[in-house]
Amino acid sequence: MSAEPPHGIDVLRVFCGPDGRHGNALGVVRDGRAHPDQASRQALARELGFSETVFVDDPERGVVDIHTPGARLPFAGHPLVGVAWLLDLEVVHPPAGEVWVRQDGEFTWITARAEWAPPRTLRQYASAAEVEELDVPEPGERSEMGVPPTPEGLWGRSYAWAWEDEAGGRIRARAFPGRGDGIDEDEATGAAALLLTARLDRALNIVQGRGSQILTAPGPDGTIEVGGRVRLV
Q1: Does 3.10.310.10 match the CATH number of domain 116-232?
Q2: For residue 211, what are the CA distances in angstroms to 20, 61, 187, 200, 205?
Q3: What Gene3D superfamilies does the entry give (predicted)?
Q4: Residue 228, beta-bridge partner list
Q5: pTM (2 decimals)?
Q6: What are residue 162's DSSP bridge partners?
């Protein structure tokens, strides 16, 4: 990540903990016209080095474009929560589809579908302590986590999780993107929380990374809400 983001880029932290700390860093380019083609957007996302960077193509309609340092994404959780909070939007339009937004006190919520999230291996561990003690896997070790390599030879995304309080829906998690783009571990991952909520079919309170917090709740017709706190850096 560059030391000082270029002019015209807001930097947020999304899914902050109760004390306002942690959260996953996000770059938001308010005027997407400054980077009109995919090549220039990909180059800027690579330069910034955030897990994702959002380009706003229409701030009134909420049309956005999401890039990691190495690829364009049709959907991602923390970028959509972050840009919706920053621009005070009621709906966001990433390539995956229409995403509705609501504000609830200090939390910003989006409604999405699990099938929009990129594939990811959800690996359950016996205890939160086991998850916390995991080393960031080297590329040659990721097969041990049950994650097959992609056709490009990169090891796939994995989400390590364990119950902290099953009755209360509290989970400890860590995410290893495995994209080979310099992001070895995600501090907070809304798309993974979406997939885990769909699998468990219940509301969750997830602590990920160093102390980020993600809340989820199943909704009607297969939708899932994902919510969290956002702070401007």
Answers
A1: yes
A2: 10, 33, 8, 22, 12
A3: Diaminopimelate Epimerase, Chain A, domain 1
A4: 108
A5: 0.90
A6: 172
Domain boundaries, the chain: 9-103, 116-232
Q: Where in the chain does DSSP place strands (E)? A: 9-16, 24-29, 52-58, 63-67, 72-73, 91-92, 99-104, 107-113, 121-124, 158-165, 170-176, 204-208, 212-218, 223-232
pLDDT at 141 over 50: no
Instruction: Return the CATH class of domain 9-103.
Output: alpha beta
Confidence of residue 178 (pLDDT cuts 50, 70, 90): confident
Instruction: Give, for 195, the enclosing helix (H) or strand (E).
Output: helix 190-200
Interatomic CA distance for residues 171 and 129, integer angstroms: 11
Six token digits for residue 118: 């990129």
pLDDT digits (tens, 9 = 90+) for 41-96: 999 999 999 999 999 999 999 999 999 999 999 999 999 999 999 999 999 999 99
Range in 11-20, 144-153, 185-194 the model is least confident about: 144-153
